[in-house]
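quick one before i forget lol
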Amino acid sequence: MPINDLRAMNTFAKAAELGSLRKAAAAQGMTPQAASQALAQLEKHLGVRLFHRTTRSLALTDEGRRFLEAAQPALAGLQRALQSVRHAKDEIAGPLRIVGPRSTFRPVLWPVLEEFCEMHPEVQPDVVLDDRIGNWVEDRVDVGFRIGASPAEGVVARRLFALQLIICASPSYLARHGAPATLDDLASHRCSAYRLSNTGKVMPWPVRTEDDVVTIDVAPALCTNDEELEVQAVLSGQVLGQLTGVSAAPHIRAGRLVPILAQHASERSSVFIYYGSRVSQPARARAFIDHVVRRLTGSTAYVLSPKELAAAESRGRLVMRRTRSART
């Protein structure tokens, strides 16, 4: 049913209820002229007169009375449906469709999602983690996360924090193999590499030089498309690897990993949250976006400062030298 027809039927029903077209117009926020035009269009569409009208009175015709009796239940049902949707839009409850990358983002999403669910237990998160770039409409997305701004049209993207890339090794790896002193020394070390799931290509390592970020190829002793497995391989001492700050920062701060060649840590991109127009979003989506932005914008939990990286590397190298000295 076109919206104009529905508005005309509501005007007709309200005029019959109040006995006045002018009062019906005021009740619906319309001008008397607009109400009169809507009623005239409805009568023309039906091919009958619905009211006997004079300048002072308004009375239903027989056809108008029959039409009102038939239309009132349907109009009441539509009003209930509209009120239900408006109420749901303002209620922080119901399903919340969230998408994000499988690699990198899992450790970031769960803490903020857990906090949000504690605050709003009536929300039902529906989370899909996938490294492919999906279709915003087909995937019915409320809130999305991406490494880099989303290519989808008509969405808002907000930067949360930088995605740092840090070359790391475990203390046990350094004790056995020593630490590279320069980027060229990496050629003689056991390195891991990450294979992109969507293309199958092995990622070179982006590293910061004095003036720019360049990429270097490594001959991988281990290659995987799963970041969690790569982290475990580095933690175990099998390889050294270039890990994201999301994965590496907690281990570096706990001493389980040591940043290597810290001056070459780079920022490949940033983590973004994206969403459609806030005007049409349900309250649960708006509340989640606000919570994420508040908790993650500029977060230092997953980004180490140059000073912190340098201090951690110095501590790790000192431990390495002592361990190797004790063995000789």
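fyi DSSP finds ten helices and 13 strands in the chain.
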